[in-house]
């Protein structure tokens, strides 16, 4: 929660990301924070204080909230991959493609879509609940749980991650071709380096999510020990959303130095506000 809150506050102040990429980063960081919030403020306290509450109707809604934020995060990463691909392939036209209106509408649509996906979980027949004996979430045994778990969660996530991988591959190949092309002006080289840095940031984030999917749906099933399962499922789920925020921090100096710069500015304002300058004849001109 602390890592992603830092990124959220920094994104509100820094301008280095641009409007479209900044808004998309804000979207998946908010989704990361939402996942961390549900685990920290609901799942963990319920497990410690009253484990039986996980079996109540309200207790089962924690899984529903987590699926919502997971979908929003994955779709935000897909939108990031689309944005990076457009920037590299169509650097001149990208500002007319990813306008402020298009960006905002797209982000709103992906969140509405994520909310719509978890509507079936309001039914007690479609369960994604926390099992205290294994410390992990499981889909229920009903037909509805099978449908939402297999198609709207597993296959959907795999399709989105594979699409992200395909877009990232195309973007990477284009970057390789651009690096072999003729030299360009210094100012354009600086802009290209920044866009390439943003691409590798998005690539690392997509790789982290792919690793988490493999961990949750494949590696965890190779072990019977509940603590090992907990490590490859619940712990991996929490960790990937922390790493997602850390990647943004590591790839961007402005994000890393956000709090330090804020303190510097507040110190300067405090010191200058206490100084009463006396005008001299030269200061009037």
TrEMBL record:
The keyword Transmembrane is assigned to this record: yes
Per its UniProt record, what Pfam families does this chain match? 7TM_GPCR_Srx (PF10328)
The record ties this protein, via CDD domains, to: 7tm_classA_rhodopsin-like (cd00637)
Membrane-spanning ranges: 30-49, 69-90, 102-122, 154-177, 198-218, 230-251
> Which UniProt keywords are given for this protein, alphabetically ordered?
Membrane, Transmembrane, Transmembrane helix
Residues in 7TM GPCR serpentine receptor class x (Srx) domain copies: 2-252
Extract the PANTHER family matched here: G-PROTEIN COUPLED RECEPTORS FAMILY 1 PROFILE DOMAIN-CONTAINING PROTEIN, SERPENTINE RECEPTOR, CLASS X
Protein name, entry field: 7TM GPCR serpentine receptor class x (Srx) domain-containing protein
